[in-house]
Amino acid sequence: MTNQIAIWLGVLILGGVMLDYALVGTEHLLFLGKKFYDLLDWVAFWR
Q: Residues near 39 by Cβ (< 8 Å), separated by ≥ 6?
């Protein structure tokens, strides 16, 4: 992955998080954060 692709991916992710925060608040971000943590734990198990 090049630096330019990583920067654009980071900008898109941060833009999505800011849009979600502006439209619905923080409840969804907390839920998605917990689910992402569970996913990372599950993937680390299979590694």
A: none
